[in-house]
Design brief:
alpha/beta; Rossmann fold; Alpha-Beta Plaits; 3 domains; 7-stranded mixed sheet; 5-stranded parallel sheet; elongated
Length: 436
Amino acid sequence: MQAQVVLIIDSRNELSQKYKKIIQQDCYVYPVVSHDLQQAFEIMEELEPDLVIVSDTFEEKITDLCEKIRNNSRLYRPVLVVLSKSSYLEDKLNALKSGADDFISEPIESSEFSIRIFAHLRRHVEELSNAITQFPNEKITYKVLKRLVNSDIKWSLLYLDIDHFKTYSEIYGYLAADKVLKTFAAILRSSIDKGDFIGHLGENVFVIMTSPYKAEQMAVYLNYTFDAVAPKFYSEKDAQRGYLIISSDEKAGIRIPLVSTSIGIVSNQYKTYNNYQEAINAVINVHKLIKFLPGSSWISDRPKISTEEERKIEIIRNKIMVVESDAALAYLLDTTLEMQGYKVEVTGNIDELVNLIEENQPDLLLLDSGDADAEKCLEICSFIKNNEKYSSIKIIVSTVTHEKELVLDAGADLYLPKPYELMTLFGWIHKILNYE
């Protein structure tokens, strides 16, 4: 995995190969040698190296070269090290003023050269790493992914995040959220081998670049291990209940599951990617397929599932089933929800609901719990959430009879007491169907 690239610009063959050999000691570092200045700048544009070593063996003045390298790498700014036959202080100062980060006078002992170069690389990564997880930030992650996609090796890309992390942080505070991130980072770190890469694409969004032969086993391990420790981040009451209750100003209550992880996997084993943007878009689309599933889960783009699952990506989650005994309210909900762009099926008979769910496969169930149907409502909530076939269906229960916790314990995702404002309902529906 070309996690870090070092470009050596040196007209000398023997010494440049010596420096390359020293740098190759670390499997994470990929050294490239150029004896030609024009070629060197083409390599810089293609690979965006993390560190550039340039010697003063060219006709062009080293100060001019430093300025040119800085101007051509302004967007990603590599570490710039000058190798020089001179040991004069004035030459060192002029090179540093022109943009160099270090000036090394030759001849130099191999161990000193190695220590200085790797110290620069370490600091470069640390400066661009997340303070909590110590993983590289988006800037480095995209750079490494670009190199990976442009290489000729077989790879797998895992895209993963912590579900319900934002809500957890809002309730338990940033210190507790930092603890979740640190624990998750430790689990991620324990899953990789030398040569794999982990980086951030957001506060709690990560990618892992690894071999196709390890990707799925890695996903299974990450799901299992994180689920095992997730309850420890909660109070005893919340952990025993298995979810959080979020109350709003309207006295509604929403059921928020415990934190979990969702993992999408793509690989160039089965499909060719022309650039890193294609790879990122593909893995994000695969990842979307499991965001609505409860608990930790993963999905791969293996051929046996990819055709079917890719079709599902295009499906918009907008099918709503309304169970409402009040005919006037049922008509109002049907009309206004369709005006909002949803596909709506309405029934006033709760006894036929299971058959209608099987027939229509809704994304969300808006269930009225009246006095006569109170117990039936709870039974249906429990049936849906405990049935793997229907467990992805989101449930909003509107009621004047039940207590909030009783409804949520039965499996409802949102407790919405009557009477409610239509715009309040629409806001909740949008949030629930869009995983906000």
